[in-house]
Amino acid sequence: MRRFDELRKECLEANQMLPKVGLVDLTFGNVSILDRERGVIAIKPSGVDYNKLTLEDIVLIDGDGKKIDGKLRPSSDTPTHVRLFRGFVGMRAVVHTHSRHAVSFAQAGMAIPCLGTTHADYFYGEVPVTRPMKEAEIKGMYEWETGNVIVERFKELGLDPVDVPAVLVHGHGPFVWGPSGAKAVENAFALEIVAEMALKALQINPQARPIGRNLLNKHFLRKHGADAYYGQPQLG
Ligand SMILES: [Zn+2]
Fold it and tell me: 28 CA to middle of ligand 1, Å?
């Protein structure tokens, strides 16, 4: 096996999952995986059909976003991924999609309120939306600045990206992350589901309010953190 083939494989498989779970229209979407110890990121190449994607197509870049291996150009969103890996130290994988319901909230400029326990199982409170980007940011290093507004928003809100592993970029769409490629894609799928549910709940009752702190704590903390008890204990 070549160097970093495991990393490429995790990246390939996570990218291939996106259309399978219905998160991708056309080629809007990409996953990257970071090997933090070795400072190498595997990322989807730009504009390649998910069905045709192979291990060789996955592009390897360094921590500055410079290509170190691969024939193809990396995703045009690469600088956003690199910025997020730098800003959010705990994460291993970043997913970007234009999944329709999450994008609907991003386009409305609205955070996704935590209206129920499905949301609370994955996200510890509302999923925030960034501010609109400024002219200079859009004309300048746009993709890098996209990462900046995300990190800025989490700082403003005092949010831990481990507790809320997703964000909506205003007028654009979701970026989601996790400790592995598979988990990050699962989080992106959960985000799309809760966005659809929130949209429908708000249609039925525009006065729908977020669940209370007790129910939020119960659901999030039983699956995450030191006192988690959901699922099966680790064997072996
Ligand atoms: Zn995009």
Answer: 6
